[in-house]
Batch of 3 targets.
Target 1
Amino acid sequence: MKILLTTILTFQIIVLVGQTNEIQKFQNDLIDNQLMKYDGDTRISTSIDTPWMEYHLRRLFPDSTESTLTFKSIATKDSIVLTETERDLILSFFQNPDNLKLSVNPTEFSTIEIDSALNHLKDDHENQVVFISRPLFIRDDKIGVAFFSNLCCGHIYGHVNFSFYQKENEIWTRWIDISSGAF
């Protein structure tokens, strides 16, 4: 019995460590691929504002009796059709404030609290703040879903995207946007 319990506990620890490593790899890939190139101090926010996330989730809210939802890439002409179950899973995951908090810093950047981000940006026009959610993996972990924003330039300027990601050459790459923009 002790051997069985030890085996189960060991397996759970390995799975948890593997998930943490994949989450960090995912977040590192997003930052490496999407970080703007400025010479100031880049910080990573410890959380994402819930109303900001709610705004980007609005395209997922059911507005009819359709059981699927389609998102298309303008650049590649690819598309993804979500089932109602997948849509509900994404909504539930990103409405949970715990998934909008940085659990482990995947970078060498210092962290910053969300309420200090604007002051950091105003301190130097070269400074940046990155906001990144915990990723949700769907379809046998072949597709990741995450929120990413990179603000800069002395104020709330930059880009934001809530997107699907796929691996290309073992690197998680932005694939199809659910919601995105520049400001």
Note: DSSP finds four helices and nine strands in the chain.
Target 2
Amino acid sequence: MALKRIEEKIAKWSTRLSLIGLIGLLCLSVITVGAVLLRAVFGISILGIYDASELIVVVIVTACFPLTSVERAHINVSVLGTAIGGRTRHLFDAFSALISLVFFTFLTVQLWKYALELMGTHESTWIVHIPLYPWWLAAAVLITLCIPIELVCFFSAVGAAVKFEPENQKPLQS
């Protein structure tokens, strides 16, 4: 029961977090349309649009990962469907969550290394010299949040497999 409440809280929290991605996508769209209109109508180019776009996309994409983890919307192969049975399906879900956990752990380590490297080297974009490390630190934090989410998904799937009762079989009465 406690795991179910944790899942519900994480789902609400990650939905709100994905709004960062939505707002970022909206900003990117407005910037792009504005740049195109200024160039087409007035012949004016906005300096650094490409620089800003690259950085905004990093945050947009990583802000959506926690929600996709909660909804288990990552790549999932269910070739056998209902033929494998409920308990086996839950075990496959647990395996899928475990693989996702390993992937996000590896990705988190790499993103933190990269962000800290950028912080140490003070790298910036070429045209308008926007520092890179704050954007990649945000991406590292957002991806790091996927690790506890995948842990909850894993334990939830294992719990569902252990407690599974076939629908056509009545539970044992004590």
Note: The CA atoms of residues 28 and 53 lie 6 Å apart.
Target 3
Amino acid sequence: MQVTIIETLKRLEQVRSVLRSLPVADIATALERIARYWLNEAAPERRQVLTELPQRLPFSRPVCERALNALFEPMTAERMLRLLDEQLGDRRVLDAFVLRPNGVRRKAFGANAALLILAGNIPGIGIWDIAFCLLCKTPVLVKPSSDEPLLPSLFAQSLAAVAPELADTVVTLLPTETDIGALLTDAVEAVIVYGTDETVATVKRQVLAKVRVIERGHRISVAIIAEEFTDERTAELLALDIARFDQRGCLSPQICFVVGRGAGDAGQELGQKLAKALERVSAELPTNLREGEKASVAQFRLTCEMLGATVLASSDASWTVAIWDGERGTEGWRKVACSARVVHLVAMPSLSAVMDTLRPMGKFLQGVALATDEATAEQMAEALGQIGASRICPVGQLQAPPMEWSQDGKHLVAELVRWCDLEPIALPPKESGWVEVFCGKEERALLLRAALEGRGIPVSLQSEVDPTDPTVPLQRLFVPAPYADDARQVLATLNDH
């Protein structure tokens, strides 16, 4: 439901305490119920999304349908609770202070509220972020993209109908609302922002210093394929990665490096196989390009050919493969950006050459899809992680990340919470150290000492003299503070006799 800012802030105060009172297991169960609802083909919200999204975004209905299924299928209560155990050590820390091995109890507190600023480049972006916020007992203000305000709004609307315990915990704002500063009240402790680097920088300038900003800015992904893996199966898997979101997501493989001494010939062969695979995939997942995007594809093809690439393309603008081989071609691909189901296929003589190429773009590197033997993959993982990659996976899986993956190198659950430690509250005794229980003549002191030690009470004896008569010796008896009361009882008993 879309509301004004004033209404949003009032509602926020009302739902925060309700959300915090819910056991996290109940929240996970409610989210699973919502997910199952959205997977039902008869759900009116799902039908509306699949009807209207292709009109709003340059994606066909099959692409949007697959995107919805990929979003909601992993959202089971068991899997979400297991994720919390993984990220926080124990899901129960969101409900109560939990005892740790060191004797200290610890609790995780979600933000009072999170502001989620969405981009509209791919369908369904932000749905997992909303789920993670709710699992951390954090209500969410969603500022959707003006390109795609539909799915976030309908998802929030479905909460009230299917999971009333979560009603009003997600509030969508009008997509035209641009005054981010008005949303940054004291209640908003976290901001999750998707968009270009310029968008992220603009938001950060408006955020108070103590507000956590989780950035989802510009990222790129690549594929690396060893020459011995340039077969039809790899081509089919790579085509699926390319086609799923038409190269618009942070996990879209814009560049595919073919590696080996014969990479030039292998790249040409893979290019031919990839072209056929993309043609087949396009029948299952057709594109839905606007006229302006079709013109951009035509310009991409022409520019790549002028720079020395071999260009394989569909008869329309559905797909394009630019194959770069040789010294001239290896450099030319850097000058042409990818979009709308186009990909660069670049021959590289060695893995070290690939790493040298990726290193300068490390801060933008998100995912890497591999088609290599397992030993090579393990060897590459360390170097790719050092460069900046946050996800390394088999080719064909790049556009289908698991719910547990650490986007941009961090998981939102861990980013959202702050911790409070409760140490044992054991006050020291009123008296500590050694306590004096007797001061008197030596004969009496020795008698009392024997009596106390006979009852297992440690005794320390100090000799002094009577200040009024230096010729008279005095003895002082001390016992540890925990034994003081017992010692006094013993002495009182002896004095009575």
Note: The chain has a mean pLDDT of 88.
